[in-house]
Amino acid sequence: MQAYIIRRLMAAVVTVFVLSLAVFWLLRLIPTDPAVLILGMNATDEQVQGLRHEMGLDKPILQQYLDWMQQLLTGNLGRSFVTHSDVGDEILSRLPVTLELLALTVAFTVLFGIPFGIISAVYQNSLLDYGVRVVAVFGLSIPTFWLATLVILVPAQQWGYSPPIAQTVGLLEDPWDNLRQFVPPALILGLTAAAGIMRLTRSSLLEVLRQDYIRTARAKGLQERLVILRHGLKNSLVPVVTVLGLQVAGLLGGTVIIESIFTLRGLGQYTFEALFRRDFLVVQTMALYIAVVVVLMNLLVDILYAWLDPRIRYS
Amino acid sequence: MSNGNYWNDIFWRRMSRRRLLQTGAAAGIGLGIAAACGDSGQEEGAQQGGESEEAKPGGRLQYVSSVNFDGVDPFRSIAAGTAIYPRVYNSLLRATAAAADTRVFDLAQELEQPDEVTYVFKIRPSVKMAPNSLGAPERDLDANDALASYEYAKSVPESNHGAFIKQYNVTFQAQDASTFIVKTDGPYAWTLERLGSPIACIVPREFIQNNVDLKQQGAGGNAFFIRAYRDGEVVSVDRNPNYWNQPLPYLEGIDYRVITDRATWRAALLSQQVHYYSAENSREAEDLVRQQGRLVYIKDPSYSYVSFIMNPDVDPQYRDPRIRRAISRAINREEFINTIALGDARPSGVVHWSLTDYALPEEELNERYQPFDVNEAKQLLREAGHPNGITIRMMYPTPQPTIDRYVPVLLSQFQAAGIQVQQEPVDFATWLNRYRQRDYASSLSLNQVYETPETPLNWHISVGPIGDGSYTRGLQDPEVDAAVRKANTTLDVEQRIEAVKEAQRLIYSKDPLMLNIYTSYSNILLWNFVKNYRSGIGTLTLAYNDIWLDR
Fold first, then answer.
1. How close is the nearest chain A Cα to the Cα of B305, in Å?
2. Pick from A33, A40, A153: CB nearest B263
3. Beta strand pairing status for B306-310 and B390-397?
4. I need a surface site. Which of A15, B12, B276, B385 has the fewest CB within 10 A?
């Protein structure tokens, strides 16, 4: 197991290094000059060159990459080209927002995805099953940005109500307002994720429920509830846990849009704004951060999988 | 002069057009502009309520920026920050050609012009610094602060204000603490507008000496100081208790909230979490007022427009004036206005209509200089040797909500005139970069807000809009260059208006490379408890710190 983890860790380090190169070089391939974008249409050449120098864009690209790596490895993420704010400080101040959103999303995903998956499997081909599946298809197919817009606009139009906007409220600062602010976006993000989990739970449980040992359990007179929850669900959750882990990483992408619509000052909004402003340093740092999270989640899932299923370690 | 109204006493300096003309004519013999104070100016632009009511102090105005801030550094920030730092830092005065007969004195209280190139400002006493933790004592600002700020702007390559100072070789002198002298290297018509623009801020000299980073913090002698800056969320400014013009400001503070999504902004307005909304068009504004009767709709002239621009350096067919005129004749501005602006806009000439006296009359534009005439367009193409029409390449930025709606209309109009378009949609950053480097055959182009005719005219001269050949090299015509130079150097306002019009007529006679489509309105909605919000005066609205909340 130890050797397996070390192998996976080494592969993760290489992956992150390659990703850092890709992120850095791909951003430089965009045919644009961030200095021009930042300074706007009235900027003179002198202004543009001055800002390019300040941003270090007049250095050779390799030098720029090495400078960035040096910063990262020494724990200094640098300062935003546009706002001059410390990128590390910004990430730290925004991280709780994204973490809370993700935690609530995962909670809703599990809360809705797994129970409805079980119900759907247990009552296979019943009206209940069809109903749950229709909702799941709805959740998978509806764009989150569209749903988010409706959720924010309709109550405002009808009743003059909307969740707190344009000021992120801390959980300890005002728990009620915080929940009013975080629950709607978490529900929207959770809907899509839960739909996937629900379908996976259903198919996985149906497969397990057809196994011989389930038939044996029933034959020996176990209660149906125990058969499903103790013998069926436990085994069917292995792929569900794996997918849930990967979904958490994937949800980071979903927060980019949802945080902007709900004006949550999280990492998604930070990335979105930086992209919009061509703030290279922030974009590449955030892209690398997301990549690292995805790699780490993959690593975690791999390890978890190996722990759950020992055959994986030897393959 | 005083009628008991606070700004008539010390703050508001308004001159009737006639008085300004007299002053301009008298400039050479040393009469002071400040001597020509007029009436209250209440009729200037729209003003929402409040004038006859007693202002209530307190409360925070919840304002919105639809783009994130790029900082609040008065020397460097250009986006949303330009709406914030003019309320933090003083200018000598505030002025714009959008409200040509209005000058609002600020750090300066008086101006004299002994000759055509010299501006002597008398600094107002007791303009005191706001409390701050940035190392500047709560002292009175003086001419040395103005000198430090302008010299700094000159020395920093990326400074907003530096380009003007360098382009016109402007020199500054603090004769003593209360006298500040500005000199240009020749007569320049827009000196006061430049000195009075929102980006011409005067920063306490300690900040400059100590190299204080002003991107996310700041304080000066104006009505507010920056209390909090949270990137992507809010910039909060608080009332400066030392503000020279007490009892202003009435507000306890202003929160500038970042809401980039229009639906979210609308929801925030309807739930009264913000007090201000910029509707997409008049129909949306009217719908909202119908839905919520306590909203007030203010229609404010815009100072920008979309253009079609041709580059003969890349596509030589544009060297033929008949081709340029054919393209001009193919454009039906009414159709643009009706389909995109829902009828709520007016055609733009070389100088847009919102600059009032400087623009050519609409009838003259429509009948003489830019009429829509498909048959003439086709005839011109035939005369130019293209009986089957021409094919052009057109770059445009996308996705851009504004531009995206122009493209299909323009394509169909061009097609009707026999002009086939090869489209080059590119993302905004690429577009800006290529546009700047003149790497386009033709482009559908966004423009910035122009509150003087200077830049709109400069698009047609050989050195281009910002004087370094970026974007376009204009018509490359010495006559046009001379006419625009004359317009930009004529100090007498009445003569200048004529010079600007003559320059436009000359540009039209040469068939311009840049064709402006239309200029619309900003459709602003406010809750009715927001009082004294001024409109119709462009960025001069930032000079007023008397907004209050009736709640």
1. 14
2. A153
3. unpaired
4. B385
Strands B234-239 and B224-230: antiparallel
3-state SS assignment for residue B375: helix
The DSSP output letter for A233 is I
Ranges of chain B with pLDDT below 50:
1-45
Residue A287 has pLDDT above 50, yes or no: yes
- Distance, CA of B161 to chain centre: 14
Q: Is B436 on the interface with A (CB under 8 A)?
A: yes
Tell me the residue type at A64: Q
Q: Is residue B315 a contact partner of residue B324, using CB atoms and an 8 Å limit?
A: no
Q: CB distance from B234 to chain A under 8 Å? A: yes
A162: which chain B residues are within 8 Å (Cβ-Cβ)?
267-268, 270-271, 273
Yes or no: say if A205 and A121 are a contact pair by the CB < 8 Å rule.
yes
φ, ψ at B333 (rounded to 5°): -65, -30
Whether residue A164 is preceded by a cis peptide bond, meaning omega within 30 degrees of 0, is no
Gap between the Cα atoms of A37 and B443, Å rounded:
17
> Are A36 and B432 inside 8 Å of each other by CB?
yes
Assign B403 to helix, strand or coil. helix
Compute CA distances B151 → A163, B194, B211, B445, B458, whole Å: 48, 15, 14, 34, 26
Query: Considering CB atoms only, which of B69, B156, B432 is closest to A37?
Result: B432
Cβ-based neighbour number of residue B414 at 10 Å: 22
Query: Above pLDDT 70, what percent of chain A?
Result: 96
* C-alpha angle B513-B449-A270 in degrees, rounded to nearest 5: 115
At residue A23, the pLDDT reads 87
Residue A113, pLDDT above cutoff 50: yes
Contact A255, A266 (CB under 8 A): yes
The average pLDDT across A96-110 equals 94
Among the partner-chain residues A45, A80, A165, the one whose CB lies closest to the CB of B264 is A165
DSSP output for B453-482: SHHHHHTTSTT-TTSSS-S--TT--HHHHH
Q: For position B51, what pLDDT does the model report?
A: 57
pLDDT (0 to 100) of residue A314: 53
Tell me if the pTM is above 0.95. no
Task: Kindly give, in sequence order, each residue whose CB lies less than 8 Å from that of residue B409, ignoring residues fewer than 6 positions away.
Answer: B335, B336, B339, B340
Q: How far is CA B509 from CA A4, B305, B329, B370, in A?
A: 79, 22, 14, 11
pLDDT tens digits, A4-21: 788 888 888 898 899 899
**How far is residue B361 from each of residues A34, A298, B53, B537, measured CA to CA in Å?**
40, 67, 39, 20
Q: Are residues B273 and A162, on separate chains, in Cβ contact within 8 Å?
A: yes
Q: What is the pLDDT, as a whole number, of residue B287?
A: 95
Residues of B in contact with A42 (CB under 8 A): 78, 163, 448, 455, 465-466
Note the ipTM here. Answer: 0.81
**What does the angle CA B462 – CA B494 – CA B22 come to, to the nearest 5 degrees?**
135
